Amino acid sequence: MLKYTQVVFDVDGTLVDSRMAALNSLQQVVGEYTGMVPLLEDLYFSTGIPGENALRQLGITDPSALVRWRELAGKLAYTITVFPGIVETLERLQDLGCALGIVSSRERGEYADEITPLGLDPYFPVRILVEDTTKHKPEPEPMLEYLRRTAAAAEETLYVGDTVYDMKCALSAGVDFALASWGAAQPVEDAPHVLQEPEDLVALVRGA
Hints:
The chain is an alpha/beta fold. It folds into two domains: 6-17 and 81-206, HAD superfamily/HAD-like (Rossmann fold), CATH 3.40.50; 19-79. 38% of the residues lie in helices and 14% in strands. The chain has a six-stranded parallel beta sheet with strand order 5-4-1-6-7-8, with helices on both faces. The protein has a two-stranded antiparallel ribbon with strand order 2-3. Strand 4 (99-103), helix 5 and strand 5 (126-128) form a beta-alpha-beta unit.
């Protein structure tokens, strides 16, 4: 018997390595709109939250900035890659009988342009993106919407992510959380489970 029957994934920093595309494009946008170019490490907080929220925290409220960020990030989409071991792990989880899903702060358009071409969509019949809820990570609503759509039991669901926003979203929805340390840009304190490699998920799901 499996410990978890549903395994839900964040996208960026968990399934795919998109950090440099996101951070380099954001760095350029901040420079264009404020005249000051921040260090990349000062932008790590932007990982895992909606782009509009990240820009607001940087003092940028002009709606055109988000459009510009999308434009610049799209030009760097060719640099986004699936983390090693992800596809093999997804296949093993499916073989075990796990249902797989996505909860991400990406918008549908950018997801379609940048993530869908990587070929992961067939593994994830249910994908909760930023347009699907009015509140976003770290609030629980995105995960609660996933549970609602799938009728999954919270206690049988595991969320895999790379940020404290992911952890707070999961735990506040009553869902267990595992840190994808291979993509985490910053430490996440007190994560219930820490995965060193994607394949570690298989043992965790089996309760080993």
